[in-house]
Amino acid sequence: MKHEIFETNIGLLIIFTMIAISIGGLVEITPLFYINDTVEDVRRADGTQAVRPYTPLEQRGRDIYTREGCYNCHSQMIRPFRDEALRYGHYSLAAESQYDHPFQWGSKRTGPDLARVGGKYSDTWHVKHLVRPKSVVPESIMPNYPWLLENDLDYSDIQARMEALKKVGVPYSLTQEEYDSNVKQFGKAVADKLDITRADENLVSEAQDNNRDGIPSRITEMDALVAYLQMLGTLIDFKAHDEHEFIKAR
């Protein structure tokens, strides 16, 4: 059959295009009916879930990360290839993005991937880097973000933000039953931070305890953004897991 037949007959082209799309869709969708889950069940030694939702301060930091468009130049998804693992670390798991709305996988890297940036640099380094990137990375083309250190963090609506995320499946708690469930799933220390009724208190406490921006008298947007960056990739201890454990979920 000559290709010209399809090029000159729009009806036939549409029919065969739909057939091709249907076959491709079935190839992608059908395997999902034969697996139990697409998210890895990663647990700590005590049996609690390793991956948790963001704390109120981290969530506000993530909001600022999104607001400033950081995802345009930085991805948060390490592909399962040798060169990526050598540079960034263990490839990303689906479990690590299960509470992201929206996810930050990205498709372009002007800057390095940030999936495992947590703990790689000090808080002071992050502050200097965000205020003036060239001060720590001379060849950087990243713009300056000095206002993060100047702006006080607005967390007046943090409870409303957490309630909105709860509606799309993030296990923040409002009731005693939900809190008890989080204690069982994540442990009491984490469950306390996921309590919406104590969101303001938890945010202030975390910011003051860590003082990531170096300004103890204020809670700035820098506090929140650095808190978010410093937790990325730190929830799972890959050394405590067998590599084959994760391959089964791929």
From TrEMBL:
- Transmembrane portions of the chain: 12-34
Span of domain Cytochrome c: 56-166
Q: Name one GO molecular function term.
A: heme binding
**What InterPro entries has UniProt attached to this entry?**
Cyt_c-like_dom, Cyt_c-like_dom_sf, Cyt_c_oxidase_monohaem-su/FixO
Sorted alphabetically, which keywords does the UniProt record give? Heme, Iron, Membrane, Metal-binding, Transmembrane, Transmembrane helix
Looking up Pfam families in the UniProt record yields: FixO (PF02433)
> Per its UniProt record, what NCBIfam families does this chain match?
ccoO, PRK14487.1
Name this protein carries in UniProt: Cytochrome-c oxidase, cbb3-type subunit II
